[in-house]
Amino acid sequence: MITLKNLSAEEYMLPGNAACPGCASVASLRIALKVLGPRTIVTIPACCSSVIQGYYPKSPARVPFLNTAFAATAASASGILAALEIKGREGINVLGWAGDGGTADIGIQALSGAAERNENFIYICYDNEAYMNTGTQGSSATPRGAVTTTTVTGKKEKKKNVPEIMIAHEIPYVATACAAYPLDFAEKIRKALSMKGLKYIHLLSPCPPGWRFPAEKTVEIGKLAVSTGAWILYEWSEGKYTLTGLSKGMTKKSSRKPLKEYLTAQGRFSRLSEEETKALQEDVDTQWDRFNKKLVESGTAPTG
Ligand SMILES: Cc1ncc(C[n+]2csc(CCOP(=O)(O)OP(=O)(O)O)c2C)c(N)n1
Ligand code: SF4
Ligand SMILES: [Mg+2]
Q: Which residues have beta carbons under 5 A from ligand 3 (an ion)?
């Protein structure tokens, strides 16, 4: 189990990079690399992270990063694995690290193919819920009601559920995480490392300029996503769902904060009417009702 005491003190993502102040994705990449260690190759498509790690002629990264085409993260990771095998190199971790646009939209075919082949790498989607690097266009992971530059009156469609799509592929491990809970995230990477095949982690990654909140509130916003139940922390493996972290105590509606607290803390939801806010609260409650049934079927529902 990863704790603050045994989390590596070594840094593989150095400060002084090109991320915005308060960027949850770069803080999470730092945590991920602490768990993965120096014998790691990361492949990333076009996204904020490619700018952060590759601001030529300098780089904050202390492990090799391959910058690949927007659609190609999972294909690229598969290629790296094949090359390592041909070269007879063992004990090297391969990480695909991509945004929500590069995962839920343009990269999903490569990811689905890699899942079918059960390629032996970890794929982490850091989900800031829009195309941030190109100026906050909406993606299929943008939640209903959020304003982006392509959903100026608030997005009408629901967020695509990529973790469930990955579960349908029956890969060894699927988990969600939130950047505000780095140890929960770290522990999930540690578990993923112990398994062979494709492991998928979907990380909610608050973004101050894109979600329109002050940079010092990143952790607060991430915690609100979980404590209001908008974002569920869980793991899935061998057909069973398990809640983790704060989400463990949140199966009952009375244990969850009103969604409004999460929504009103962000400028991207400022156009919501009372009725729309109510509808989004109903979405969260329905999401939990469905999830609770999965826990019962898994035999992992909390008792009491
Ligand atoms: C085929 C292709 N289309 C569009 C782009 C332009 N582009 C570069 S980064 C990016 C946004 C990426 O969004 P996401 O994957 O969510 O990562 P984020 O920027 O939010 O970190 C886009 C549209 C591209 N590089 N390649
Ligand atoms: S736009 Fe958002 S995700 Fe991109 S670097 Fe800035 S804070 Fe991070
Ligand atoms: Mg994004």
A: 99-100, 128, 132
Q: Would you write out the chain's pLDDT as a tens digit for each of its 304 residues?
A: 999 999 999 999 998 899 999 999 999 999 999 999 999 999 999 999 999 998 778 899 999 999 999 999 999 999 999 999 999 999 999 999 999 999 999 999 999 999 999 999 999 999 999 999 999 999 999 999 999 999 999 999 999 999 999 999 999 999 999 999 999 999 999 999 999 999 999 999 999 999 999 999 999 999 999 999 999 999 999 999 999 999 999 999 999 999 999 999 999 999 999 999 999 999 999 999 999 999 999 999 987 6
Determine the CATH number of domain 24-298.
Answer: 3.40.50.970
Q: Is ligand 2 within 6 A of the CB of residue 48?
A: yes
Tell me the CA distances in angstroms from 76 to 50, 70, 85, 188, one per residue in order. Answer: 14, 11, 14, 23
Nearest Cα residue to atom 4 of ligand 1? 70
211: Cβ below 6 Å to ligand 1?
A: no
Q: Where are the domains of the chain?
A: 24-298
Collapsing DSSP to helix, strand or coil, 90 comes out as coil
Ligand number, closest to the Cα atom of 205: 2
Q: How far apart are CA 154 and CA 157, in angstroms?
A: 9
- Rounded to the nearest angstrom, the distance between the alpha carbon of 209 and the centre of ligand 2 is 7
Which one-letter amino acid corresponds to residue 173? Answer: Y
Q: 34-67 burial, b if ≥16 CB within 10 A, otherwise e?
A: bbbeeebbbbbbbbbbbebbbeeeeebbebebbb
Helices (H) and strands (E) in the chain, counts: 10, 8
Q: Tell which one of 44, 48, 108, 150 to mutate to probe ligand 1, the residue whose CB is within 8 A of the most ligand atoms.
A: 48
